[in-house]
Amino acid sequence: MMSKPRGTKRIRHPYRAFFIIIFSLLYELNVWVYAMPKPSPGTLVWLMAAQAIVVCCYWFPVWASVAVLLLNGVGEYAIPGYGQFTAYFMFLAVVLISYRTSARIAAALWFVMAAYTCIETSVRPDAFSLYGCTAFCMVYLVMVVVGRFLVWNDQRNEQLRRTVELEAKVRQLESNQYLAAYLHDALSQELALIAMEVQLRNADPSRSDDERWEHVGEYAGNALDDLREIIMNLRDESMSLRLSENQDKDIATVLEHQGREGDELLHRHGFTGDTEVDVIRDADVHDGDVSGLVTLICHEVYVNILKHGDAAGRYRVRMEETAARVRIDYENDIAEADETKTHGGNGIRALRSLITSMGGTLSHDRADGVWKGHVELPIGADARARTAPAVNAPSAAA
């Protein structure tokens, strides 16, 4: 059995409670402390009845407020000594009705209260001076404005609440996208290598199966290690799905590292070509989102070349970093078996949404047996102007 969480109960209508308590306190002080002369017992009964109705304003703000206005309007003339205590609750009623109804009703209420005050001044000139009449009309206007301000504040809070909910949903969707890309990134390379070993086994049976199985076991072990790491990170509430291992690295370091690893992978499987990295030296540009996404893009580029490219042909990858953007261009010869296929499977589709969500672009095309692709990502509008010269830094494995 699950126990109910303990905690302080929240007031459902804090604005109503606040105004009821404040005006009731002023009213009670006026009745029991400041009143001169003291009201008679019969008048006190009606005064306490008004107080009870005001308490009901918490649950029935409009109708109870109307009852207060009627009681005070009639009681001021019908009950001896009642009139000197009516002001506070009339102010309260105007605030609550303006708060819980529309702007038109609030404006009409102000005209009614102002007309009532002016008529009372004409009928009882000893009770109100012209200054007092003007002051009461202005106080009623202030109460109407306060009530409408509370309405506006409630609407703004509701919009903020909805905005926070939408932002949470967007963050969750973004997190899911990164998780999908992260899973693809962690497993696609090893699975592609395993598939290639099987293809090479069918194409070249002369090679020792023991050596192939050794490679397959190594790739499968790497995939399992990646899965374990992902599972452990998912259990950690502080995990950032945006490739935390690369968030602290500057973009130039990430590009050079990915270029070296990509060349090593492809050269190890007989591909010819190189990766050219053109970066800003000593710029130390950090952008965690871009760094993580660049890692995913590079892995997808090299894995697709490995899976669909022609090992007898050539490939070429160029990575460029400027003060405002990161650009990756790649091309490779397509294997004859893949001539009728289109590059870019689930990995590219998953990355496309991430790239466009960050303001970048992704395009690819196939012509004359060559696959070409282009990716461009903005680094950030607040990046500092860089004046350091860009140098040509081919990867070490090229």
Automatic annotation (TrEMBL):
<dbReference type="GO" id="GO:0005524">
    <property type="term" value="F:ATP binding"/>
</dbReference>
<dbReference type="InterPro" id="IPR011712">
    <property type="entry name" value="Sig_transdc_His_kin_sub3_dim/P"/>
</dbReference>
<dbReference type="GO" id="GO:0016020">
    <property type="term" value="C:membrane"/>
</dbReference>
<keyword id="KW-0597">Phosphoprotein</keyword>
<feature type="transmembrane region" description="Helical">
    <location>
        <begin position="77"/>
        <end position="98"/>
    </location>
</feature>
<feature type="domain" description="Signal transduction histidine kinase subgroup 3 dimerisation and phosphoacceptor">
    <location>
        <begin position="180"/>
        <end position="237"/>
    </location>
</feature>
<feature type="transmembrane region" description="Helical">
    <location>
        <begin position="45"/>
        <end position="71"/>
    </location>
</feature>
<feature type="transmembrane region" description="Helical">
    <location>
        <begin position="15"/>
        <end position="33"/>
    </location>
</feature>
<keyword id="KW-0418">Kinase</keyword>
<dbReference type="InterPro" id="IPR050482">
    <property type="entry name" value="Sensor_HK_TwoCompSys"/>
</dbReference>
<dbReference type="GO" id="GO:0046983">
    <property type="term" value="F:protein dimerization activity"/>
</dbReference>
<keyword id="KW-0902">Two-component regulatory system</keyword>
<protein>
    <recommendedName>
        <fullName>histidine kinase</fullName>
        <ecNumber>2.7.13.3</ecNumber>
    </recommendedName>
</protein>
<dbReference type="InterPro" id="IPR036890">
    <property type="entry name" value="HATPase_C_sf"/>
</dbReference>
<keyword id="KW-0472">Membrane</keyword>
<dbReference type="GO" id="GO:0000155">
    <property type="term" value="F:phosphorelay sensor kinase activity"/>
</dbReference>
<keyword id="KW-0547">Nucleotide-binding</keyword>
<dbReference type="Pfam" id="PF07730">
    <property type="entry name" value="HisKA_3"/>
</dbReference>
<keyword id="KW-0067">ATP-binding</keyword>
<keyword id="KW-0812">Transmembrane</keyword>
<keyword id="KW-1133">Transmembrane helix</keyword>
<keyword id="KW-0808">Transferase</keyword>
<feature type="transmembrane region" description="Helical">
    <location>
        <begin position="129"/>
        <end position="151"/>
    </location>
</feature>
